[in-house]
Amino acid sequence: MKAIFVLFDSLNRHLLEPYGGTRIPTPNFTRLAARATTFDRHYVGSLPCMPARRDLHTGRLSFLHRSWGPLEPFDDSFPVLLFQNGIYSHLITDHAHYFEDGGATYHTRYDTFEFVRGQEGDPWKAMVQPPWERLREQYHPRQYSEARRSYHARHMINREYIREENDFPSARCFAHGFDFLNANRAADGWFLQIETFDPHEPFYAPPRFRERFPTAWNGPIRDWPRYGKVDELPEECEELRANYYALVAFCDALLGKLLDQFDAQNLWDDTALIVSTDHGFLLGEHDFWAKNRMSLYEEISHIPLFFHHPEFGTPGARSTALTQTMDLAATFLDIFGAAVPDTMQGRSMLPILRGRAPERPGIIFGYFGGAVNVTDGRYVYHRYPRDLASQNIFQYTLMPQHIWQPFSLEELRQAQLAPPMPFTRNTPVLKIPVLQTSPIYNNYGPGALLENETRLYDLAVDPGQHQPLANETEKHRMAELMRQLMRGADAPQESFIRLDLPA
Description:
By secondary structure, the protein is of the alpha/beta class. It is 28% helix and 17% strand. The chain contains 14 helices and 19 strands. The strands form four sheets. It has an eight-stranded mixed β-sheet with strand order 5-4-6-1-8-11-2-12, sandwiched between helices. A five-stranded mixed β-sheet has the order 3-13-14-15-19. The protein has a three-stranded antiparallel β-sheet with strand order 7-10-9. β14 and β15 (379-383) form a beta hairpin. It is globular.
């Protein structure tokens, strides 16, 4: 058996043609849907990037216990479990967060990995004296910086070396994937993960894709939206969206090249193919850009999933099963007949393809320190603490790293050694209070949020989430479902207290 997992970043489900999108032609996602099972109710778990990947590796939710950070010593990781069962795993990625403090233990879980340089703020090319005057004229002020270690400055320098279509990191990721297939087409028992940062911002796509989406914008390069409320002029908003559309079209073309390989090598008969993303991205919906700052609306939390298995499922089928990111680890193990450890709370999706999966009552998802969100597939309920600033929350970890740096000494001085938790393999962990001076607090923690209103939506009648419901009966039912799912996820005691839920 062989399996390929394609992971895009910030790919909006609702813009893809198989999910009803009409703004961007995505013929290759449509082509994939004809060969695969399309999942209609697939959701995120923990957000954003590395928390989502911890869910992916471990098969359990992480946002209730800690924010962005490495895999923990007690974590099960599906590539390690594949290795223990004789299955070779290879990662190809241009996702630079794997190579920062807060992600440095993920890529080494695979047998081999390739890192393609140049995305976003990857500290790739050394340019001691950049041509600042030219760059200042070339880029919009909101995405221009001369600060040496800023993401914006690094991106401008990287972009000086990304000119031809084959230079783009995502194109190089897929090219390495095709090299892997050509070198290993006769082998069996392998797992390949092709992971590209696109269509994550900045929305830089080759010209032939950008030309498909003309706008009236005549200003400098404007392809990197700010996280937060929309305050740009209409033509500027359209330029930002058009650049995102172009990047999705580019991703669709790269996917098409992989599907060509499946056709040419007849991989459909012996190779599973799973395609998904980590989360979506707001493009002005609900008057917001991006993620991290607002409630987890459907555009962010409801994500695409396509699953082809050579033995199970009906080509072109659709599934209404309720699934989420943490289910992928158990699925990957199940594909190769490897046992799923008790620590994993995600469920394999193979029974869904076989038509034998029990229904799930609901799922929870969220940002660390923000709302806990629950859906049963029809209703979605965002429950916030009464006061985000005064809540008493802790990070539970043996790997005290933030995204770009270790935990501060101020944080560590207040750490306590907490008793083992159900998933830490009889190992005590550090219990570290979340301080307002923490590097995470105003970046992707409680201080970053611009919304804090508890709301209930009925997705059957209000899929755009424009009219919150005042139905107290449904709120109570969803709160009880949330409480049960939090207990099942081994949420710490303070998680219930801050949401006014009985533990």
